[in-house]
Every structure is written in structure tokens, then in C-alpha cells.
């Protein structure tokens, strides 16, 4: 039987500012995206423009699509004169919504896991180099009880899903920081995922 230890209330709720992997640091918009193939935000805007303001960012879960979209969307919308629909997760929309949105006359910038028939702006793929750079950004000048080796280990366990790596490192940091007197890992996981839902920017679709 697993034993669950409960800490005093003031120590039971982790401070997001004391954990380098809290969603306030890792959510889309908080991290500067790492673009593939030496591309820049300006390059992607030009690709959008040349495709009549239609394009998709393709990649698996946790590969950085939402982070890139958060950086690209305001620049692209401004360049398009404000007439640009932004969808994070087009493949999660209903069949009818997708059919309406991918019409040639609809200006659309979206992320998708497998492609939805729009011109492809870029393909995102997780890589150890990307993980290392992001890990260093998150942990520089912040208290941190994890190591890069921990990040690599969880990268393998999470099958390259970097978003899940941050969740795992968040829990690991909390567990090591609290020692035996902290809340259970499962309890911390429920809280961290709850905060992720609250802190993730609302999906934008106009």
C-alpha cells in the first residue's frame, strides 16, 4: 500500500515562481520558439503571404507548434491587415468546421498534427538539441533541483513530447525540493495539470 504524506497547508501549494518548469514559464508565449531549418518568423510570414494567407504548422504533440503559433500569430495578423483566423489544433475541430475553414477564400493560420490540406509553413519535430536549449533557458538564474540528464531521461520516457517533459520535471523538482514531507506526486500532478489548463491561453479563432 502506498503511503501518502500531507504537508502543512502553507507548504502544500507549490509556488509557480519557485519552479522553473511551472506553466507560467513553459506555456505558449512564455518561451521563444526554436524554428527548424534556420527559419525566422519573418520567413514564415512571407510564406503565408505567398500562399494567400493560408498555412499550417505541422508536428506531433509537444513539438513546439503552439509555442511557435503564439509568436507568429500577432506578427502574421498585423501583416495581413487583421483579417486572419488563428486555430491552435485544427485537427481537433469538427469535420464541418474544418471543411468550412480550409476553403480557399478563408485566410487561416493553424497548427495540426497530421496536416489538414493547407500549405505547409513548416514541420516541427522534437530533438535533443531543442530540449537542451530550452532546458538551459528555463533553469538559468532559477533554483533548480533537476539535471539535464533528468531531462534526457524523461524525453525518452515521454517519447519526445517536450510538453510532457516539463510536467515530469516540474513534479521531480517539487519532490526533491520538498523531500519526504511534501505532498504526494500524484497530488502534485493533478495540481500542475489543473494550473496548465488555467494558464494556457484561450484558443483564438475569429
Automatic annotation (TrEMBL):
Q: Which domain of life is it from?
A: Bacteria
InterPro entries, sorted: P-loop_NTPase
Name of the protein this chain belongs to: AAA+ ATPase domain-containing protein
Amino acid at each position: 500500500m502506498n503511503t501518502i504524506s500531507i504537508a502543512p497547508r502553507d507548504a502544500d501549494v507549490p509556488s509557480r515562481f519557485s519552479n522553473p518548469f511551472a506553466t507560467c514559464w513553459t506555456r505558449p508565449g512564455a518561451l521563444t520558439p526554436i524554428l527548424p531549418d534556420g527559419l525566422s518568423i519573418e520567413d514564415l510570414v512571407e510564406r503565408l503571404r505567398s500562399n494567400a494567407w493560408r498555412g499550417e504548422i505541422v508536428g506531433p504533440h509537444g513539438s513546439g507548434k503552439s509555442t511557435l503559433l503564439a509568436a507568429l500569430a500577432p506578427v502574421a495578423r498585423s501583416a495581413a491587415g487583421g483579417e486572419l483566423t488563428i486555430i491552435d489544433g485544427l485537427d481537433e475541430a469538427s469535420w464541418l468546421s474544418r471543411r468550412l475553414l480550409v476553403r480557399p477564400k478563408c485566410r487561416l493560420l493553424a497548427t495540426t498534427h497530421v496536416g489538414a490540406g493547407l500549405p505547409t509553413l513548416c514541420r516541427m519535430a522534437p530533438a535533443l538539441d531543442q530540449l537542451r536549449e530550452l532546458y538551459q533557458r528555463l533553469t538559468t538564474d532559477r533554483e533548480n533541483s533537476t539535471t539535464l540528464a533528468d531531462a534526457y531521461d524523461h524525453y525518452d520516457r515521454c517519447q519526445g513530447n517536450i510538453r510532457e517533459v516539463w510536467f515530469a520535471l516540474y513534479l521531480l523538482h517539487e519532490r526533491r525540493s520538498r523531500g519526504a514531507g511534501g505532498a504526494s506526486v500524484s497530488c502534485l500532478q493533478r495540481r500542475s495539470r489543473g494550473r496548465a489548463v488555467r494558464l494556457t491561453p484561450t484558443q483564438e479563432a475569429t
